Amino acid sequence: MENSRNVKIITGLSKEIFQTEIYPQRKPVILRGVDIGDCKEKWTKEYLAENGGSVEVKIHVSKTHQMDFIHKNFLYRSLPFNELLRRASEEKHTEYFIDENEKYYLRALGTGDPRKDIADIRNDFPNLAKDIVIPELFDASQFFSSVLRVASKSMQLWTHYDVTRFFI
């Protein structure tokens, strides 16, 4: 294990080591050498646009590259996924909501009711999900969500953590 800015970098990971030594610490780590599938090679903006399709997605749009949740310096809008990819890869826009320099951020939510449905790339973007291997570091019954995130170059988000939701 080596350190990168006080974040451990771990190679040669096993499920047992992850569950007994890494996960209980509940601290960020970088996992190297874990098979996550063909997405590393395949996922260009063109491939994502073609295989993600034109499904409508809810996005954050901001005038600045530093989105701030406290001051809410962004708008919520919708775009087809392939259109979001095109715009997020541009420096200046000919089509825009606020101004030609706006930045975009997608945190894919569940396919139905975003307040109730859990994000799962397998349901939300099945043509992209086939390129991903979710490492078996937990039992399948513990799988909670898989969130697809897309952002404009240089986008910075507020520091946060996502709270696990429980349903009864």
UniProtKB/TrEMBL annotation:
Top-rank taxon, per record: Eukaryota
InterPro entries for the chain: Cupin_8 (IPR041667)
Stored SUPFAM superfamilies: Clavaminate synthase-like
Ranges of residues in domain Cupin-like: 16-163
Pfam families in the record: Cupin_8 (PF13621)
Protein name listed in UniProt: Cupin-like domain-containing protein
